[in-house]
Specification:
Layout: H1 3-26, E1 36-42, E2 45-49, E3 66-69, E4 72-79, E5 86-88, E6 95-99, E7 103-106, E8 112-115, E9 121-122, E10 128-129, E11 135-137, E12 146-151, E13 156-161, E14 168-172, E15 175-177, E16 185-188, E17 191-193, E18 202-204, E19 212-216, E20 218-220, H2 226-258
Antiparallel strand pairs: 1-4, 2-3, 5-20, 6-19, 7-8, 7-11, 9-10, 12-13, 13-14, 15-18, 16-17
Helix pairs in contact: 1-2
Length: 261
């Protein structure tokens, strides 16, 4: 009886589904977090009778076949890169991307990662860095006696230094876009890296057509819809229960068959 194995694959699939949903809920308040959903696909089939096979010498054919599937498997987890809501913080170093794109940061090993988390801080050298201390690329260095920082929607960074009423331009914050942003690999720590699936990073300036703009004094909330996640969680739980019931029923049928004398 194949039902035991089929039900087991269903239980494993729903366990993965619950894992993905749980991670979404856990990161409901993570800055710049993008929710994911588990995608599934059916497994191979055993053909007992093939559709279209002749059923008589007169040429009549079987309109449908008899195909028994072997269950389900996880095809992948799809990241949903929709815009999250913007939260006003009044912190002049907080930046939110309103549109597509990612901030590029330099990793300690010389590699590069990308993030939507714009909660930047200043390092001891005045470098604009992430909460993990990774430098923004291209780098922005703020002078010691800076009294105010202004970042335009186009990413131009201006600083008021000392008592000088005229601001000094420190540089420009750029963004990176990807042909398939869902294909980026998640590293943890609000960081992602480019893969062959995502394609190479394409540099862009905030304000360019179809790219989006920067919002100073804001952070992007996660795009997790808690109500939808709770609904999906209940659905996954019920599906798991039904698969376990299928397994139990198959076991009872096999027990009954073994008891026949």
């Amino acid at each position: 009886m194949k039902a035991l194995g089929i039900a087991a694959t269903g239980m494993l699939a729903q366990q993965t589904n619950v894992d993905v949903i749980s991670n979404n809920i856990a990161n409901a308040n993570t800055t710049g977090f993008k929710s994911s959903r588990a995608a599934f696909q059916d497994l191979i089939y055993e053909t007992v009778r093939r559709e279209g096979a002749l059923t008589s010498e007169a040429g009549t054919a079987r309109p449908t076949g008899v195909d028994i599937g072997f269950g389900v498997e996880t095809a992948g987890t799809v990241r949903l890169n929709t815009q999250g809501g913007l939260l006003a913080t009044e912190n002049q170093l907080d930046l939110a991307i309103d549109g597509r794109g990612f901030f590029a940061v330099n990793l300690p090993d010389g590699g590069q990662a990308f993030t939507r988390d714009g909660a930047f801080q200043l390092s001891a050298e005045g470098q604009l860095v992430t909460l993990q201390g990774y430098e923004l690329d291209p780098g922005i260095v703020v002078p010691d006696n800076t009294t105010q920082i202004e970042v335009s929607e186009q990413g131009v960074v201006m600083a008021y230094v000392g008592g000088d009423p005229a601001p000094v331009e420190l540089g420009r914050i750029t963004m990176s876009t990807f042909t398939n942003a869902a294909g980026m690999r998640q590293l943890g720590g609000n960081l992602l890296e480019a893969t062959t699936a995502s394609g190479d990073a394409v540099p862009a300036n905030p304000g360019d057509e179809g790219i989006g703009i920067l919002r100073q004094g804001y952070l992007e909330n996660s795009n997790v819809n808690i109500i939808q996640q709770i609904t999906d969680l209940i659905s996954a739980q019920r599906a798991y229960e039904m698969n376990s019931k299928s397994l139990e029923t198959a076991d009872q049928m096999m027990t009954a068959a073994n008891q026949i004398k």
